[in-house]
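Need the bound structure for adenosine monophosphate, inputs here:
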Amino acid sequence: MTYAYDDQNIFAKILRGEIPNTTVLETEHSLAFRDLYPQAPVHVLVIPKGAYVSYDHFASEASDAEIVDYTRAIAEVCRREGVTLTAGEGFRMISNAGANGVQEVPHLHVHILGGRPLGRMLAKV
Ligand code: AMP
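Answer from helper R.:
Posting the output first, comments after.
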């Protein structure tokens, strides 16, 4: 079973330069930009430039270079946004996948949220 990637998703369009974004960081294999509808004072999305749907897709099929670049990009975004434990008050990282994860955009992204206390991880439903 292979992962199906839809290259018409909105983050693929951002990567192709077809729609604008507010870039926080760009590296060889990764792009970080501000969420259009921020849910906290810090709300940055970090995506790999490769065509990966979800974190499990990326973690199983990406090259070592892509994985290292992406992981270091996340750390650099946290540093630039002032949410690290060395300089700030912490953050939450979320990566939604598929229907149960309520993923809206089918290109891997990690949300980095911070700048205020974020409450418990999951609301009771
Ligand atoms: P998810 O539900 O995890 O797939 O989250 C998708 C996120 O993408 C949401 O937080 C949206 O606010 C955000 N989003 C959608 N379109 C854009 C866009 N053009 N630029 C930046 N963020 C976007």
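Comments: The helical segments are 10-15, 55-61, 64-80, 98-101. Residues 54 and 108 are 4 Å apart (CA to CA).
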